[in-house]
Amino acid sequence: MLAQRTLKSLTRAVGVGVHGGQRVELTLRPAPPDTGIVFRRVDLPTPVDIRVSATAVTDTRLATTLTADGDPGAPAVKTVEHFLSACAGLGIDNLIVDITGEEVPILDGSAASFVFLLQSAGIDLQKAPKRFMRIKKPVEIREGEGAALKWARLEPYEGYKLTFEIEFHHPAVNQTGQRVVFDMGSGNYKREIARARTFGFTKDVEMMRSRGLGLGGSMDNAIVVDDVKVLNGEGLRYDDEFVKHKILDAIGDMHVAGHPLIGAYTGFKSGHALNNRLLRAVLADETSYEIVTFDDAARAPAGLAELAPAW
What we know:
five-stranded mixed β-sheet; 19 strands; alpha+beta; 7 helices
């Protein structure tokens, strides 16, 4: 049987939110089979559970925000995409995340710190079948026209593959790779994707901070780009770090489905909003997907059965 996964032990992290700039603590706890990933706001007078699901996403401006039962007025947890990307990369199905504020800490701006945190706790196989969402037919969401066109698509594929293309028309970004294809079954998530950091442009900083955003951002947790170049002294971690971070985000955004995917995702200039619209479109059409398990792990698509360090 291809089994569900949780953590072997409890683990903790402390950091600041990239937008609010507030100190926040995370405590990751093992959870029973079929729990899913649940954030628990323990800073509130009565703790509130916020279950990860596509319909719990209520804001996608600059990050993915979840609220309890998808109620926009309910307690929220923000900037969940890097953490969920790490969970997807390690195949984590069930987890309770106690959090002492409304924003997941940015740490180094990538998913690598979360991968280390999860691996340090150990991964436990559970006595329940892992449930995958298998895409049965293509579903696509498009927005804009001409130079403003952006789109995202899910389609059938025997495995889990992601393709992303960016188009920023910026000297520093144009010198790097603009398109990446990544197969999650390769076992290379930790090495090839997880270390890609979020990025921002100096021209946007004043506008963001006037809106109370980006208050915790710095060159310690983001790639900072001025009009012509990357300002970080150490440069880029990958030659194509910008587009790899967009794939990292997309992996996290797709993981709010509540199940790992069997299918192919393609994004062109897509972001959190379009990614969530895509998932909701799939879930709204019951003929476009099915939930599958594998009694015989050997029957699962290549790479999805191994408990490799990076998957």
